[in-house]
Amino acid sequence: MITLFYYQKIITCMLCFCLEFILFVQFCHKFRYRQCKPRRFLSSKMSK
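Given the sequence above, the corresponding structure tokens read:
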């Protein structure tokens, strides 16, 4: 019984870690996209 509980704990921890990692990646992607957008806009304005 102890080993089962131990494995369950590890699995839940790994799942939580995976979820956090996915959220972090999505957040970084959005942030990068937001940062890149104004630069493109400015460069397009300057070229004209």
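The mean pLDDT is 81. Try to locate this feature in the token string yourself.
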